[in-house]
Amino acid sequence: MTRRILAILATLGVLSTPGMAIAAQEMTMWKSPWCGCCDAWANGMRQAGYRLTVENREDMSPVKKQVGVPGAMEACHTAVIDGYFVEGHVPVEAIAKLMSERPDIAGIAVPGMPAGSMGMGDDPNARYDVLTVGRDGTNAVFYQAGVR
Q1: Strands 128-133 vs 107-110: parallel, antiparallel or unpaired
Q2: Which of 86, 105, 115, 127 could form a disulfide with 79 if both were Cys (CB 3.0 to 4.6 A apart)?
Q3: pLDDT of 3-51, one tens digit each?
Q4: pLDDT tens digits for 58-109?
Q5: Domains of the chain in sequence order
Q6: Could you tell me if 133 and 68 are in contact, meaning their C-beta atoms sit under 8 angstroms apart?
Q7: Which residues pair with 140 in a beta bridge?
Q8: Burial (CB count <10 Å: 0-12, 13-18, 19+), residue 5
Q9: Bridge partners, residue 55, by sequence
Q10: What is the DSSP letter of 114?
Q11: Cα dihedral sign, 14-25-41-91
């Protein structure tokens, strides 16, 4: 790309990631101040073009409760984007899909800390599910990481 095209994309807030383009969107993330894997996930979100505000909390329970993350879906960090929560090591592609499809759900989650997920080793071949969390507490597979 020429510098002129890159400047136009930056002005419009569209940034490239491998295989896709996303509009730069604001996201707020809450995490432990000492969590390196959360920092790595935050850096990955920034590299993908999200404008990320990070708020450190020693006690994440009130944040998770406030945004509606069920206990069974909890992971180490919680983010919110455009009215949805994003719990845990959710890959960029799943967030782009969420923003594109805008399903009637509360959010998406990767419970726990799967090895190879973004921030947990960043293995593009790691396989794990990103789950929807419905407003009624139901969940289903939304995206399968590592499945081509």
Answers
A1: antiparallel
A2: 86
A3: 333 333 333 343 333 334 445 699 999 999 998 888 999 999 999 999 9
A4: 999 999 999 999 999 999 999 999 999 999 999 999 999 999 999 999 999 9
A5: 3-145 (3.40.30)
A6: yes
A7: 132
A8: exposed
A9: 30
A10: -
A11: negative
